[in-house]
Specification:
359 residues; mainly alpha; Leucine-rich Repeat Variant; 19 helices
Length: 359
């Protein structure tokens, strides 16, 4: 079927007109959106600049009674909430308390239960952040469900709010949240758990299942003990060394290395000959920190290990011991009868130490 040329031409013309109209409409829409965003940004910057001046006068006037803060327009209240949240991190003591009172004076905290359930993730996140920053303990229970939120940054802010309270009633849900994350993410999340403070470690000891029944929480325990330098956890860490679980033993070694107690050396040194290389690698890191120059013979033996990570850690451990360690590495690098792996790693670490001026 062939259409008349005039009809085809007319269809092309109208199609072009419609397409041009759509393109022009999209351009106008994009321009309108950009204009609106630019106007909002200019308004936000102007408000922030004005509020910074007002906040300085409100908090640092040198008087016992703070001056009244200028009235906040109703349409600017949400923006002002974000402003206060941002500046709270730069303040402490009396000024931080003054900022909290200013926030409470807005009355917006009463909307937190509703905002914690809002369909927009940014609103849920802001509400959780306000609970944590402004110490709104009455809303902590309402924050707990956000640990299961599908948006990661919402769960992160919820966990920070709960740990920042220092209330160990929320330790279990937060620890469970960390354990639901991928293993490589858990060590990064230790910083969140540290918000509970050192009291979390005794709580974990009292409430966790036996290590072999549930090893992952005890791995967290060991990592936290190391990050807190919690010496009261040392007996439990030594017990974890005897558990038949590679992750537990390696994590306990890492924590003991952070504590660097020379009295633990006899318990750590045998693990340098463990059948699992991750344990040997952590032992190689720990030996020098715990034993000092006395660990050099054990570290030399580890430089001929078949696993590169173990050799590297052992050689690095000697390099970190200063003159005694670098002298042992020099002897090893120049010994023609030494294992070739040991000679190679000794030369590598000596070059590294020389580049950084560690010799």
């Amino acid at each position: 079927m062939h259409l008349p040329p005039a009809l085809v031409l007319q269809a092309l013309i109208w199609g072009t007109v419609v397409l041009g109209t759509l393109v022009a409409g999209l351009v106008l829409l994009g321009t309108g959106i950009q204009f609106r965003q630019d106007r909002q940004n200019r308004h936000r910057i102007a408000r922030y600049q004005a509020w910074e001046t007002d906040l300085a006068a409100y908090l640092f006037n040198g008087e016992d009674t703070p001056r009244p803060f200028p009235r906040i327009a109703k349409e600017d209240r949400q923006l002002f909430q974000k402003f206060l949240t941002r500046y709270h991190a730069t303040l402490a003591g009396r000024e931080a308390e003054g900022l909290r009172e200013l926030y409470l004076g807005l009355g917006v905290h009463q909307s937190i239960p509703r905002r914690l359930k809002h369909r927009q993730a940014t609103v849920r996140a802001q509400a959780a952040q306000e609970v944590g920053i402004f110490k709104l303990e009455e809303y902590l229970e309402a924050v707990v469900p956000l640990l299961n939120d599908p948006v990661p940054y919402v769960t992160h802010l919820a966990a920070q709010a709960l740990t920042g309270s220092g209330d160990l009633r929320f330790a279990k849900p937060v620890v469970d949240w960390v354990l639901r994350e991928e293993r490589y993410q858990r060590e990064r999340l230790l910083r969140v758990l540290e918000g509970f403070g050192p009291d979390l470690l005794p709580w974990l000891e009292a409430h966790l299942a036996p290590p072999l029944a549930a090893p992952d929480p005890w791995v967290l325990f060991a990592l936290l003990a190391g990050s807190h330098r919690h010496r009261e956890s040392e007996p439990r860490l030594l017990e974890l060394l005897t558990e038949a679980n590679v992750d537990l033993q390696a994590s306990a070694l890492k924590a003991l290395a952070a504590l660097a107690d020379p009295l633990t050396y006899p318990k750590v040194e045998p693990l340098a000959r463990h059948e699992a290389w991750p344990v040997r690698a952590q032992a190689a890191k720990a030996l020098g920190l715990i034993g000092g120059p006395d660990a050099i013979p054990a570290l030399i033996a580890l430089t001929s290990d078949p696993i590169y990570e173990v050799r590297r850690n052992a050689a690095q451990g000697m390099a970190d011991l200063g003159h005694a360690g670098t002298s042992a590495l020099t002897w090893l690098a120049e010994d023609p009868t030494a294992d070739r792996f040991a000679r190679d790693i000794a030369r590598e670490r000596l070059e590294w130490a020389d580049e950084r001026g560690h010799q």
